[in-house]
UniProtKB/TrEMBL annotation:
The lineage of its organism: Bacteria, Pseudomonadati, Bacteroidota, Flavobacteriia, Flavobacteriales. Pfam families: ACPS. It comes from Psychroflexus salinarum. The keyword Transport does not apply. Signal peptide: none annotated. This is 4'-phosphopantetheinyl transferase superfamily protein. It comes from the Bacteria.
Length: 173
């Protein structure tokens, strides 16, 4: 399964007020709300939960053909440590890795297959793949009829996940 999400923390600070009335209760379980509010890093914990839910949603959307309406309350998060956690959806659970810097919060589903991530523009991503895979022409990114991104190579189509927010964009493939 493949899914990722990033939040530009400066942009999120400008545009989001996670402490407005009832907002946390709309996107977080009671346990998650307590995790956010009982910690000195409440904003960081919130964005970690958010990115974990989003990346899991993308993975489950691909697996189960879920409608493209994100319902954050349908997903619950648990932190294992500062980097790893789990996201539950119905009777399923995914492991998630989170990378945090001063500039962004990034989470991706941990897959048994080795996934690679690429931080940068779409053109740079495609140029990098062309070189790595020794292709004659640039591969193409397209979407399925369900709106799920895929990478079109000369002889096959591969699942990818793309996330962008503010000044950051990341491909997972």
């Amino acid at each position: 399964m493949i899914g990722n999400d990033i939040v530009d923390l400066a942009k999120a600070k400008e545009e989001s007020n996670i402490f407005r009335p009832r907002y946390l209760e709309k996107v977080c379980s009671t346990t998650e709300v307590n995790l956010v509010l009982s910690n000195a890093n409440s904003i960081t914990n919130f964005w970690r939960i958010w990115t974990m839910k989003e990346c899991a949603y993308k993975a489950f959307q691909r697996k189960f053909s879920i409608k493209t309406i994100f319902n954050p309350f349908a997903f619950t998060c648990q932190f294992e440590d500062s980097e790893f956690g789990r996201v539950s959806f119905q009777n399923y659970q995914l492991s998630v890795e989170t990378i945090q810097t001063d500039e962004f919060m990034y989470s991706e589903v941990i897959n048994s297959k080795t996934n690679q991530r690429f931080f940068g523009s779409t053109l740079d991503f495609l140029l990098d793949l062309k070189t790595k895979l020794n292709l004659q022409s640039l591969p193409e990114v397209s979407k399925t009829t369900e709106g799920i991104p895929v990478l079109n190579l000369p002889n096959k189509t591969l699942p990818i996940s793309k996330t962008h927010h503010g000044k950051f964009q990341v491909y997972l493939y």
